[in-house]
Amino acid sequence: MQQLSPTHSRTDFECVVSSAKMRQIVLVTLFASVLAVVSCLPRPQGEEEQSVYQDEIPSYNYNYAVNDPLSGDTKSHSEHRYGDRVTGSYSQLMPDGKYRTVNYYADDATGYNVQIADQQLI
């Protein structure tokens, strides 16, 4: 810290202190700016860890059904996957009284394939 001498006034001392604080503020601001720029740079793309082993065959099964006489909502859906092939079926009571069933399958070779059948209930 600078000592006051007869040739220095209190105002000179305050300017020295203010100048030191200003340098600190500039350095902190500069550091924060550099940190912000570095954090926005693209990161190198490495190999991502996979949670599924490559030799596992993907598969799943699910189904649900709704039959609510109060609202008239009647529908169902089931689907099965084994490897790259998905098969499924969904049905719904349509507003015109028909019961529509859609059977489908999809795979890499043929894409999405569907068969629709309507049955008149009313």
TrEMBL record:
Record organism: Bemisia tabaci (Sweetpotato whitefly)
Record carries keyword Oxidoreductase: no
Name of this chain's protein: Cuticular protein
GO cellular component, one term: extracellular matrix
Tagged with keyword Transmembrane helix: no
GO molecular function annotation: structural constituent of cuticle
UniProt keyword terms in alphabetical order: Cuticle
PROSITE patterns linked to this entry: CHIT_BIND_RR_1 (PS00233), CHIT_BIND_RR_2 (PS51155)
Short name of one Pfam family: Chitin_bind_4
